[in-house]
Design brief:
Length: 287
């Protein structure tokens, strides 16, 4: 007989961060840079731990150039050719490739098998259709809370991957215990993204699609393999101009979050976090 886990599981939209007493006088006092030493490789990292997803629309060389200026990195997508790399690169940015998990036991198994950083998220993505196609998934906030707890117990690290729709969600992911937050949709539609700006009913848009969508599969392997269903969708997103503005919006939001809860450094946000469950997170009268 299948087991039903009736424990409450939450998404970003189900909570808000409770403000706490803060001695911080200005948002400028907040340090968003984090330094980590990884458990297995002993490699070190220092930077603002927001990552552009390795999707071929957003994980581009052009994006990496801008992100690097802000001490953030880009998971470059895997479809560039060696020639493309030769034209672009002198050093090798991190390449991230691993299946995602959402449970503490899988996190522990992977860390004990030698992984340093575990990507957490099944089905929360903006262009992901896994939950409707397969019925599989896990609300992202709970997945991050539970996986971070398991990872940190072993001195491992996690990336919250997918499901962030606004800077507040990025803050909630860090508050829940994510060491890194990976974003696809929030970085879509910019100048630095792949693809042309298209004119649609007088509006400028750019194409954004899941890496398991029919669009991506046809582009990279010519077809959708018969044995699998596409688990991603294709959307047209409004053209948002240079990514610089979006970056400043996200970083400004994170700094504000930290001041509201009294965290002088992003690394302290998790310890300063109390989530409150809500039925509505913002006033939607004008949306
Ligand atoms: P977003 O920030 O757009 O909500 O989520 C980005 C994440 O969605 C990516 O980093 C990746 O893990 C996931 N993703 C990207 N394309 C697909 C897809 O076609 N199918 C599924 N299931 N997930 C995808």
């Amino acid at each position: 007989m299948p087991r039903v886990d009736a424990g409450l599981k939450l998404d970003f939209k189900d909570v808000l961060l409770r403000p706490k007493r803060s001695s911080l006088k200005s948002r400028a006092e907040v340090d968003l840079k984090c330094s980590y030493t990884f458990r297995n490789s002993k490699q070190t990292y220092s930077g603002i731990p927001v990552i552009v997803s390795n999707m071929d629309t957003v994980g581009t060389f052009e994006m990496a150039v801008v992100m690097t200026q802000h001490a953030m990195f880009t998971a470059i997508h895997k479809h560039y050719t060696l020639e493309d790399w030769k034209l672009f690169a002198t050093n090798h940015p991190e390449c991230l490739e691993a299946g995602n998990v959402v449970t503490g036991e899988m996190v522990e198994e992977l860390i004990l098998s030698g992984a340093d950083i575990i990507k957490v998220g099944i089905g929360p993505g903006s262009v992901c259709t896994t939950r409707t196609k397969t019925g599989v998934g896990y609300p992202q906030l709970s997945a991050v809370i539970e996986c971070a707890d398991s990872a940190h117990g072993l001195k491992g690290h996690i990336i919250s991957d997918g499901g962030c729709t606004c800077p507040g969600d990025v803050a909630k992911a860090f508050g829940a215990g994510a060491d890194f937050v990976m974003l696809g949709g929030m970085f879509s539609g910019h100048t630095e993204c792949a693809g042309e700006v298209i004119e649609r009913n007088g509006q400028k848009v750019k194409l954004f699609y899941g890496m398991s969508s029919e669009t991506a599969m046809k582009k990279h392997s010519g077809q959708v393999a018969e044995y699998r269903a596409s688990e991603g969708k294709t959307v047209e997103v409004p053209f948002k101009g240079d990514v610089e503005n979006t970056i400043l919006d996200i970083l400004g939001g994170l700094r504000s979050t930290c001041t509201y809860v009294g965290a002088a450094r992003l690394k302290e946000l998790n310890r300063r976090t109390t989530f409150i469950r809500v039925t509505q997170q913002h006033n939607s009268i004008f949306s």
